[in-house]
Design goal:
This protein is an alpha/beta fold. The protein is built from nine helices and twelve strands. Helices cover 25% and strands 21% of the residues. Helix 4 crosses helix 5. The N terminus is likely disordered.
Length: 409
């Protein structure tokens, strides 16, 4: 265990008030055994860490649920003024006499036979990421949003293109990557109700909600990313060996868990993912485990509640989640004004995960000193903190593309 510095229970935004806490060593087992080889990491330490996160943080899937069928709802080989191929693919799942479907919006560069792809969820429908009129509007439940004209939990035409600034579609295509996005509410609506998403397909006869160690919404959304990857392996236009999971905020937590649970993801990006994502829980800076479990009780499994306002009892921390992604490339990004997500905690998590990457001979974050704002560290483990707020910007995408070119493509 590595010791760090100094106590309180209100929201902490002052480094001098961060409690003293222990950083559990990723390379020492729960039983105290030192891990000094890749083989031991993969056979002993990685499985026990994965199992702990599965049973006590995100929740495990009750059983496998694979794609029943997929349908290409729409495609155009001359989309975005001739720049891209567009495809809208619906994946359907059936179990317990119930059906769930979600739609992947795909933009692929025209000049490539097989494209590497960034895969990420969006918050308000596929039609919000682009002005493209051909993109279908989801009929799934949505959070109301006055700015987007969303009321009665219904997505509408008025919100088309409202989130184009978060998705640098042209930059991604110009760099020779495809973009795949899914409206997360189609997989599991983001509310504390486990009756209307994918969970419902896997309940036992009288079950109405997941068991204490079973999946919350983050694990359900991660499952959806993994199923999208299953589809990509069937699509001849996609290089399924070069799919990068991407996510912002709660969906950054999701992209990390997807990358940890499925080693087929070639790289993982966490954008401003904060508590329960990249940020260290034990620092208790900004959002805490207690706050997140109170505000969003459906995101994690019920077993995680035992660590609310009790982070010191956690035998793990989020750097060990990041370490589960090793040796695949990992990018953690923060925003200067996003104190709620604890940028320093996100950085330190990347730093402490690096010892596992080094075991593989990969270069991680070589210093405990945070980089200056807008001065990225780009190694197999990459990190930047940019100016601005909790968001995704062109600056973020420019750096993700540069890093992917060096470490994934």
């Amino acid at each position: 265990m590595l010791s760090m510095s100094i106590v309180t229970s209100q929201t902490i935004y002052d480094e001098s008030k961060v409690p003293t806490f222990e950083v559990p060593d990723p390379l020492v087992t729960f039983g105290g055994e030192k891990i000094n080889s890749v083989r031991k990491w993969e056979k002993v330490r990685r499985p026990e860490l994965l199992k702990f996160f599965e049973n006590n943080v995100y929740g495990k899937l009750p059983k496998a649920l694979k794609i029943d069928s997929y349908t290409i709802l729409e495609q155009d080989n001359n989309a975005l003024n001739g720049k891209a191929k567009r495809k809208q693919v619906q994946l359907t799942f059936k179990n317990n006499d119930k059906i769930l479907s979600f739609t992947i919006l795909l933009y692929l560069p025209k000049n490539l036979d097989k494209a590497p792809v960034f895969l990420g969820y969006n918050f308000y429908g596929n039609h919000t990421i682009t002005e493209d009129k051909a993109v279908l509007i989801s009929t799934a439940w949505a959070n109301n949003n006055e700015d987007f004209g969303i009321e009665n939990h219904t997505l509408i035409e008025e919100s088309r293109g409202k989130r184009t600034h978060r998705w640098a579609v042209e930059k991604i295509l110009d760099a020779g990557y495809g973009l795949a996005t899914i409206y997360y509410g189609e997989v599991d609506p983001d509310k504390n109700d486990f009756s209307d998403g994918v969970h419902n397909l896997l309940y036992q006869q009288t079950q109405r909600q997941p068991k204490p160690d079973e999946w919350g919404s983050i694990a359900a959304w991660s499952w959806g990313m993994v199923r999208a990857l299953d589809y990509f392996e069937k699509d001849p236009e996609i290089d399924a060996t070069k799919v990068i999971s991407f996510g912002h905020s709660r969906l950054g937590k999701t992209s990390l868990w997807a990358g940890a649970t499925d080693v087929r993801f070639a790289g993982v990006i966490s954008n401003n993912s904060g508590c329960g994502g990249a940020a260290l829980s034990k620092r208790k800076f900004g959002e805490t485990v207690g706050r997140i479990n109170t505000s969003f009780p459906h995101w994690f499994c019920d077993n995680f509640d035992q660590y609310s306002d009790n982070e010191e009892a956690l035998p793990v921390d989020q750097h060990q989640l990041l370490a589960l992604i090793a040796p695949r490339p990992l990018y953690v990004a923060s925003a200067q004004e996003d104190e709620w997500a604890d940028p320093k905690g996100e950085f330190l998590s990347s730093y402490y995960a690096s010892s596992v990457y080094e075991l593989y001979g990969k270069k991680g974050i070589g210093t405990m000193e945070m980089p200056k704002v807008n001065e990225p560290i780009q190694n197999t483990v990459a990190y930047h903190i940019r100016t601005g707020k909790h968001d995704v910007t062109d600056y973020d995408w420019e750096n993700y593309i540069k890093w992917a070119n060096a470490f994934v493509k």
